[in-house]
């Protein structure tokens, strides 16, 4: 299953920040579908079960609101990478991030974790943050809370087996198809993690184009969605290597996503 529809149903473009006309054009179809998605989103009270159940091992007080901003705001952005770990592109991406001293979030596909547990340990050793992206990358928008919980717990179990003790701070629904997943994620101590900017690296459009989309599309405090798995992500890796120094030269800092919405 590919990531083709993920951004179209995400929370990315829903913010009210001023954007260029070109970006508005890019974002319009996304905005329409995001609006439909948001109609089903509930901004629920903080989950009580969170940490006491000890199953999510994220952090206490996670809420069902979808976070799509950085921790510190201002001229910052947070890089997030979905669908790995991948035996080719994840190690290359980790090397690029290490070279530039950038910490990112990795939203892990449970079956890929099972196949490549050593890569999860490498991600943790690199000081990056883990995010649950479900076992099989299913669209869960119509799933019952019980089925969602079973999948999320199974994914966390795989991650724990691969990297014992490493917290799983966030959850991201495949395709941004949230349905009832935010409430369940919060109960398990994981903050739902959306995005404000997706750059279509699943196409893939060429490294230079990816660089341009990030550099021109980023807004203050944006969580940015890219991919290190689910296909050939070599352009993404090369783009990140170029994006970091370009943005830093313009005064941007690389931050983590906010803990709460
Ligand atoms: Zn995905």
Automatic annotation (TrEMBL):
Its EC number is 3.-.-.-. PROSITE patterns: NODB. InterPro entries: Glyco_hydro/deAcase_b/a-brl, NODB_dom, Polysacc_deacetylase_ArnD. Keywords: Hydrolase, Metal-binding. Signal peptide: none annotated. Residues 1-20 are annotated as: Disordered. CDD domains: CE4_NodB_like_6s_7s (cd10917). GO terms for molecular function: hydrolase activity. Pfam families: Polysacc_deac_1. The keyword Hydrolase applies. Residues 75-255 form the NodB homology domain. The keyword Signal does not apply. It is an enzyme of class 3 (hydrolase). This is Polysaccharide deacetylase family protein. It comes from Streptomyces desertarenae.
